[in-house]
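This part of the workshop introduces the protein records we will be handling. The structure tokens are whole numbers drawn from a learned vocabulary of backbone shapes. The record below serves as our worked example for the rest of this section.

===
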Amino acid sequence: MTGIGAACTGDGTVDTYAAYLGPDALLHRGSHQTALDIYGATAEPAATAKQPHCGSSGSSDGSHSSNNGSSGWRGKLNGWLGGDAGLPVDGWLTTCCSQVGQIMLTLPNAYSKVGLLAALPLSIGCACLSFWTMFCLIALYVERKHRLIKDGRWHGPEGKSHHVTQYHDVMGDNLGHWAKTVVQIVVVISLFGTNVSQIVASSSDAYYLEEGNSLDKRQLAILFGALMQLSVFLPTLRHFRFINVLGLLGTTYTAWYIVGTAAVHGPSPNALRGPASLRDFYNGFSVIMSAFGGHAMALEIMDSMFVPEGYSRVYGWSFMYIFSLTLPHSTAVQVTWPDQAVHNGNVYGILPLNLAKQISIYLMLVHQIIAFCLYSAPLYYMAEKALHVHTKP
């Protein structure tokens, strides 16, 4: 529960989903009829949790003021750490953290390879295609959900779904088993490669913390690879609110630190240089496309929301924020260090070593560990389903 508060019910429970939707939802507590009446059989009720501080009638008179305050603080803490984070802002935080991270440090190199004049329209074009793809995926998700609800196969005994809906589930249900298999293989390869890149990127970033690092990049990669396996202890994407905020603080600081450093340094006369070869252009374009066009875990984010159908707006606002970080800093690096950027895959290889850079590296290391956790979650869901042990808390 996130600032809205818990809704106390007659049997001493707190209906978190009803608290999110509003008082009218309490008329149908404990059943997915709430979703049917208020959101046209599309919303996903959250689980109810026992709270001994709720009164028998849900009232809050003077005698229960201290108890209500205690329950309110526990409710807020549960939203931040306890798996009850399914509001639109949580979808926004998760999408931002999953779309921007290490790519911020490699985008300047991509911009330099394709040339600034081509990089900006390519970024906007890839984002527009990403919006359209996400719109189609949301439509397919909602269609599948309506169909399963109508058939009585969506809600469990508690009035909520017990399985996380994933990309291959939606495609398989609409196109057939062959599509489910193909999409699942593609998504596994994509997510596995992304997770490996997070480990490699973390070792690369840590290498720039000091001159003459005592550990080489391979040793650092082993260290961060072991550390990132702790991601298995995060059950669902509703447990990520607090660490998502930490991750966005890191990327925001890094983006504007780079812009500030570039502004102090001043522009280069070679800022508008074009691609050196077709191969450079292709390599740069592939990085831009992956930065603004990834959907491998989008459906898991949408499914984690209390009202998944609102994800189209969340996705749009997340890209506005992502653009506010990636376009200024990538343009600033290209304008200031165009010749160095084309030869450095990591922008930290260009920036001077000082305290501000070290703070940025530490924050980005935290973000990359969070990104690994995010991209691992869909793989864990697939493994649980394969072993027939998957349930959605």
User: Anything to note?
Assistant: The CA atoms of residues 10 and 57 lie 5 Å apart. The mean pLDDT is 76. The chain is about 65% helix and 0% strand.
